[in-house]
Inverse folding.
């Protein structure tokens, strides 16, 4: 955090507050350290955080004598977009570090990375309820929800490309489509779930040179144009979907697995460029964004908010995603040191064992985090013990052993 976040926060602060403007005691740099510490250390509330700031200082700040009320007010008045600017400035750095690392990737992910300019996953998640004990929410009849976030993640690194916030907790995923399309490069492959089904947007994606992959709805209406492959357990067809100006030729893949048919839609019409087994295996990787939301909301505590103001919620949201990226970067370093796929390293155990590194550092027994975690990976349970499913191998076996139509 001190190596990357502090310089970025200082740069954003210098740009936002020119030399002629008076800086408050609770500057962006101080508030960044304060909120990151609240999240990172699971501090229970602002009052307890204020006590820590006053007595021992937090991260790169020394002791700052301020009240809980001053901190609460500052969370409502310091522009949360400054936190977002820090996140946006740091994301290219983390993506670059990820690309430079040498560690094995799942075969389907490596395959897609070699063929598409981006391999991205998008999904939305509703934020949890705000506390009714805070400010104007005191005495409210119900716990209002804090809003909705949507993330666009890189499948290979699990780092976010972009994160968006919408204060309306009832906002549909479709509302974020214009921002998602704008954030993607031509030649990218985008994977998403049924909630984003929109034939007009599908056509817009295709016209923008963006390939897409999703699940097909059970009530999908379509016309068959051609059959590419058909057996008792796998169907691969070209179909027409949409009406009039939204009409588009897409590919429908249906796979029978454990007695249930799974159907997928993609704009990649060439079965040689995107074989059937890779369609299914890549869609299974969509679950990585659900893993990301679990880390953000449960492990890093975005299910609890320190303030009821929209500005404070955004401030905590952007800080939490900064910490998520730091944790992913750290876990990826451990994966590289152990020469194992990222998926085999437990982000949760890396996070929980930071305490033991801190104690070893104080005793003078360790000076490098990755080296320490790698050396103690077995004792710390950092490498997952459960066997990982290989969907690509399952699908190839299914296609090979199929008895025919």
């Amino acid at each position: 955090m001190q190596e990357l976040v502090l310089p970025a926060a200082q740069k954003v602060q210098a740009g936002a507050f020119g030399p002629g403007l008076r800086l408050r005691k609770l500057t962006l740099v101080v508030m960044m350290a304060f909120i990151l510490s609240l999240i990172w250390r699971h501090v229970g509330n602002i009052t307890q955080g204020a006590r820590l700031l006053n007595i021992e200082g937090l991260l790169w700040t020394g002791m700052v004598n301020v009240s809980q009320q001053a901190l609460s007010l500052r969370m409502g008045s310091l522009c949360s977009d400054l936190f977002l600017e820090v996140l946006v400035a740091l994301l290219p750095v983390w993506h670059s570090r990820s690309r430079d690392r040498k560690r094995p990737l799942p075969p389907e992910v490596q395959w897609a990375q070699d063929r598409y300019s981006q391999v991205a996953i998008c999904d939305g998640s509703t934020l949890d309820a705000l506390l009714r004990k805070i400010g104007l929410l005191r005495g409210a009849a119900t716990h209002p929800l804090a809003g909705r976030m949507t993330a666009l993640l890189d499948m290979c690194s699990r780092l976010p490309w972009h994160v968006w916030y919408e204060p309306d907790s009832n906002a549909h995923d479709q509302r974020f489509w214009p921002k998602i399309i704008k954030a993607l490069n031509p030649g990218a492959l985008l994977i998403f779930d049924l909630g984003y089904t929109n034939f007009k947007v599908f056509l817009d994606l295709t016209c923008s040179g963006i390939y897409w992959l999703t699940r097909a709805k059970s009530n999908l209406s379509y016309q068959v144009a051609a059959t590419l492959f058909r057996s008792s357990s796998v169907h691969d067809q070209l179909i027409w979907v949409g009406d009039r100006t939204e009409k588009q030729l897409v590919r429908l893949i249906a796979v029978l697995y454990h007695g249930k048919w799974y159907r997928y839609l993609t704009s990649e019409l060439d079965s040689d460029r995107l074989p059937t087994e890779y369609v299914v295996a890549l869609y299974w990787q969509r679950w990585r964004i659900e893993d990301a939301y679990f880390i953000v909301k449960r492990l890093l505590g975005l299910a609890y908010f320190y303030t009821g103001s929209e500005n404070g919620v955004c401030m905590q949201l952007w800080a939490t995603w900064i910490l998520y990226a730091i944790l992913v970067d750290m876990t990826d370093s451990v994966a590289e040191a152990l020469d194992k796929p990222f998926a085999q390293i437990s982000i949760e155990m890396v996070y929980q064992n930071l305490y033991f590194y801190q104690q070893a550092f104080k005793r003078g027994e360790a000076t490098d985090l990755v080296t320490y975690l790698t050396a103690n990976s077995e004792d710390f349970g950092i490498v997952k013990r459960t066997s990982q499913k290989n969907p690509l191998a399952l699908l190839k076996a299914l296609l090979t052993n199929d008895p025919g139509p």
